[in-house]
Amino acid sequence: MALLKVINLRQHFKISRSFTVKAVNGVTFEINAGETYGLVGESGSGKTTIGRSIIRLYNPTEGKVFFDGKKISGNLDAATNKMLRQNMQMIFQDPMSSLNPRKKVGDIIAEGLDIHKLYKNLKERQEIIAEILKKVGLSPAHAERYPQQFSGGQRQRVGIARALVMNPKLIIADECISALDVSIQAQVVNLMKDIQDETKCAYLFIAHDLSMVKYISDRIGVLHKGYLVETGTTQEIFSNPAHPYTQSLLSAVPQPNPRVEKNRTLLTYNAENVNYESCTMQQLSDTHFVLT
């Protein structure tokens, strides 16, 4: 049974009486326990909105979401809400704005423990904080520092520690490496893979970087204008992309070989006149490319 099942998720934002932003439109996918599902697409395609709707930072406009066999869309009772908060966590894109600058790192990490009372005494609380800091490559002494005293990579590790301390079954990583240097990105992604091997948690990995998505993901979903246009295993998506938009994304990836890069053909997906709601899959596949 899938750990997370999203069925026909829609998230619309009413801006005025006459205008509504349709950020997510009828998205359906599922994530199995211990699996990493990568969600890719251009800026504004609805990736972050999907993550925030799943974890209920937004109330979904329409659709059903099931987590660990329980429905978490619609109105939640106290027991279901508590289960959701303990077993699903989120790593945010900006490691600075997501951390309270007036709180010490130890208090930031332990906020979930404090709310759900998951320790017996202060000594156990300190031990849990020290252990999780070691797990993400930081020192227990860092618990007494403030977020602004850390580098970007270290702050992102604090964000990962805050998510991991609850021992969740699913972590939504919302572009958690996009603000980091390339070398730090590799360290953070390797850390996430090591943690997954140890704790068997699942990831919804939202990112722009296709190379990182390929490295960490078991399956991938491609999002365009709020629609999930293609989904499949990492091997299927990268070796045999079926949808023209997926092909255009992969064609934009730079090649390290300068001779290959010089002759690389960039495919631009022309979707200005495509209406996803009324198109069949065959019509979508027949959409033409513009070679540039």
What does this structure look like?
With 292 residues, the chain is α/β, with parallel strands linked by helices. The protein has a single domain (2-97, 169-291), classed as Rossmann fold. It has helices spanning 47-54, 78-87, 105-109, 111-116, 122-135, 152-164, 182-199, 210-216, 234-239, 244-251, 258-262, 281-285; strands at residues 4-14, 20-31, 36-40, 62-67, 70-71, 88-91, 170-174, 202-206, 219-224, 227-233, 267-269, 289-291. The strands form 3 sheets. Strands 6-7-8-3-9-10 form a 6-stranded mixed beta sheet, with helices on both faces. Strands 2-1-4-5 form a 4-stranded antiparallel beta sheet, with helices on one face. A hairpin with a 5-residue loop joins strand 1 and strand 2 (20-31). Helix 6 runs parallel beside helix 7. The relative contact order is 0.14. Mean pLDDT is 87; it is low at 278-292.
Summarize the structure.
This protein has 292 residues and is an alpha/beta fold. It has helices at residues 47-54, 78-87, 105-109, 111-116, 122-135, 152-164, 182-199, 210-216, 234-239, 244-251, 258-262, 281-285, and strands at 4-14, 20-31, 36-40, 62-67, 70-71, 88-91, 170-174, 202-206, 219-224, 227-233, 267-269, 289-291.
Topology:
Blueprint: E1 4-14, E2 20-31, E3 36-40, H1 47-54, E4 62-67, E5 70-71, H2 78-87, E6 88-91, H3 105-109, H4 111-116, H5 122-135, H6 152-164, E7 170-174, H7 182-199, E8 202-206, H8 210-216, E9 219-224, E10 227-233, H9 234-239, H10 244-251, H11 258-262, E11 267-269, H12 281-285, E12 289-291
Parallel strand pairs: 3-8, 3-9, 6-7, 7-8
Antiparallel strand pairs: 1-2, 1-4, 4-5, 9-10, 11-12
